[in-house]
Each structure stands twice: as structure tokens, then as C-alpha cells.
Write a structure and sequence with these properties.
Blueprint: H1 41-58, E1 62-67, H2 70-76, E2 92-97, H3 102-113, E3 123-127, E4 133-138, H4 141-146
Length: 149
């Protein structure tokens, strides 16, 4: 829902709550409406909602891989959180199609980090009773070949 604010009132007088999104639209005299991708805020919000629907409709086709490197371990150990080896919210995430061969994913990691495919080693992580994660076991070549097929 897109509601217009009264220009003569301040934000304090408006009924703005936590989580509200405020969009400002600069009014200029466009040469034509085609000059702007979204000439009015409401059309922008509609586009955002459509994108969300498309994302949700295709979400089951994708999986997320998080790649923690040595630099991520060194940055985390001895910092604010002492229990986890890495901050899983800060490591690089890859949204990958589930049908994508793991070999192609490794090539994408090589491009992103500059680590040759033959030097990459992927591990599964296990959640422990104290809610921390530790590397559990490396993926075998057979397990890697089964991923994405």
C-alpha cells in the first residue's frame, strides 16, 4: 500500500512506525514519462512486489552455499565471538541452481576468489550442542560428483 504524506506536516505528526518504508520522489519536469523507469512511486513498489513473487516462485530451484576461507577464519578467531570459527553472516554466499554440476560451482568460486579448482577443498559443517558449527568432513570426489546431478 502506498500512502501520500501531507507536505505541511512533519514526520513526527505522521503515523510512521518501525518497518515503514519512506520513498521520496523528486518532482522535476520530465521531458517524457519514458525518461524514468518508474515515473511514480507506486509503480516502483509494484515492481518490487512482482520481483518478490518471482523469487519465491523459483526459490525451490536454488540452494545456498556459504564459502568460508582462511581469511574468514583469521578474522573471526579471537574477536568478539569466541566460539564459532567464522561469522556465517559475513562469509560469501552463493545462490546456485540445484541442478548445476558442482564442478561449475567450483569454477565460479575460482573466479570469485582466485583459488584454482584443484586447490579447493569443500567441507560439510556440523551444528554442535552449544549451537556452534565446526567442519565435519571433507566432501569426497564421489560426493562432489553427485551434487547437482
Amino acid at each position: 500500500m502506498c500512502e501520500h504524506l501531507d507536505k505541511r506536516t512533519s514526520f513526527r505528526c505522521s503515523q510512521i512506525e518501525d518497518g515503514d518504508i519512506i520513498c521520496f520522489q523528486k518532482h522535476s519536469k520530465p521531458k517524457s514519462e519514458e525518461q524514468y523507469r518508474y515515473p511514480i512511486v507506486a509503480s516502483f513498489l509494484e515492481n518490487v512486489k512482482e520481483d518478490e513473487k518471482r523469487y519465491k516462485a523459483q526459490a525451490h530451484l536454488y540452494t545456498v552455499f556459504k564459502v568460508a576461507r582462511e581469511e574468514d577464519l583469521l578474522e573471526q578467531i579471537g574477536k568478539d565471538i569466541y566460539f564459532d570459527l567464522v561469522d556465517h553472516d559475513k562469509v560469501r554466499s552463493f545462490s546456485i541452481r540445484k541442478q548445476m554440476p558442482f564442478k561449475l560451482f567450483k569454477e565460479e568460486v575460482a573466479k570469485e576468489f582466485g583459488i584454482p579448482v584443484q586447490c579447493q577443498r569443500f567441507w560439510t559443517w556440523a551444528k554442535r550442542q552449544n549451537h556452534t558449527y565446526r567442519p565435519y568432513q571433507p566432501l569426497t570426489p564421489q560426493e562432489e560428483s553427485q551434487l547437482g546431478s
